[in-house]
Amino acid sequence: MTKKALIVYGGWDGHQPDLVAELFRTILTEEGFSVEMSQSLDSFSDEEALKALNLIIPIWTMGEITNEQCKSVLNAVASGVGIAGNHGGMCDAFRSNVDWQFMTGGNWVAHPGNDGVEYTVNIKKGSSPIVEGIEDFIVKSEHYYLHVDPAVEVLATTRFPVVDGPHAANGVVDMPVIWTKRWGKGKVFYCSLGHHADILEAPHCREIMRRGFLWAAKEEE
Question: What is the CATH number of the domain that holds 146?
Answer without folding.
Answer: 3.40.50.880
